[in-house]
Design a protein that fits this description.
- By secondary structure, the chain is an all-alpha fold.
- Helix content is 51%, strand content 0%.
- The longest helix has 16 residues.
């Protein structure tokens, strides 16, 4: 257990929101962590369309992570299973042309 003594004047709810602790197992898969964060974003916003510069409140660079997945896909280094998982999320796109085409339907 971790016990913290907060200085006087710091409200616990505010402190909880301000601090973010990310625990990753040493053997954990960083891709899975990024995908989990994307799913959280998707659940929260209703779309996997992450702005390129988007950074989550805990400073996780979700926009950069998404861009890296698109780059890996274009380069042929993204596993097919991972590409399929991303494809299943509403709002996910691989190219700017796909994004622009989808915009035409909105």
């Amino acid at each position: 257990a971790l016990v913290l003594a907060l200085p006087t004047g710091i409200a616990l709810p505010r402190f909880r929101r301000a601090i973010a602790v990310r625990v990753l197992e040493v053997a954990g898969d960083e891709w899975e962590y990024g995908y989990a964060r994307l799913r959280q974003f998707h659940k929260r916003t209703g779309s996997a369309r992450v702005p390129a510069q988007h950074v989550e409140l805990d400073r996780f660079p979700l926009g950069a992570w998404a861009a890296a997945q698109r780059a890996a896909y274009r380069g042929g280094t993204l596993a097919v299973e991972r590409a399929q998982r991303l494809d299943r999320l509403k709002g996910w796109w691989w190219t700017a042309q796909e994004r622009d085409w989808a915009d035409g339907w909105q």
